[in-house]
Amino acid sequence: MLYKFTTSAEIARQVSVGIFRFYELTKYIKIEDHVGRSDPHECSISFNDTECIEHSEKIPTASFNGIEFKCVSMRPDEKYISQYFVFCMSTVMNADVIGDSTHVVELSADIFETFELLLCNSTGTKKHKLFSHNQVEYYDIHNHPTPFGQEIWREVYVKNSDFKSQYEYRAALFVSEHLFEKNRTASTTIARPIFLNNVRMAFDLEISMRSGIDPNGWRYIELDISEFSANLTSLPCKIMEIALPSKEAT
Fold this sequence. Notes:
With 250 residues, the protein is of the alpha+beta class. It contains 7 helices and 18 strands.
């Protein structure tokens, strides 16, 4: 089971019925907060000064033209990173994961397997995927992340161990500027027929993709599978309210 922490009942309701908003990854690099969302090292492998000074022998070794050197930080440029849009969750039900959350939605991972089925990789390569989902791998100077090889899409699923208490699971879209703008003009709908006992059902497996910019200027992409979800079951995903600390406790 996965848990989506939100800052309002309305956001939780939208997620529960099947509307998922993926924000541009650069948002989490640029925002400043103290509740666990901000990470200036998203999509990078970076080691802090203390790690490098105390364990310099464990800094990753790179080479160029046969010459080896130590590399303390590896990060793509912002224009490249801006193609990633993420939807973040946790594998644990713990209110401390994100400090300002008021509600949490209980989700099943098979929702994202369905997204993957509909939004199949159109590039014909393992390097990038239009849609992917995975548990975040946490690294430090003693435990380097697993090499990406040809699966470059995995770069959005590594984070410094400073964030390991979040037990994060995320889904990600890799979307070009052209596709983002195209979906601002008109949403894209993908539908596939579904069958039960070899009989086609009266509704399709359908998902809509639309792009937008929120009031704070952050770009997002929404995946909407609410119509299919409502046809399949009348029950939305479970929403739980997070109890706020009492004034006496603070």
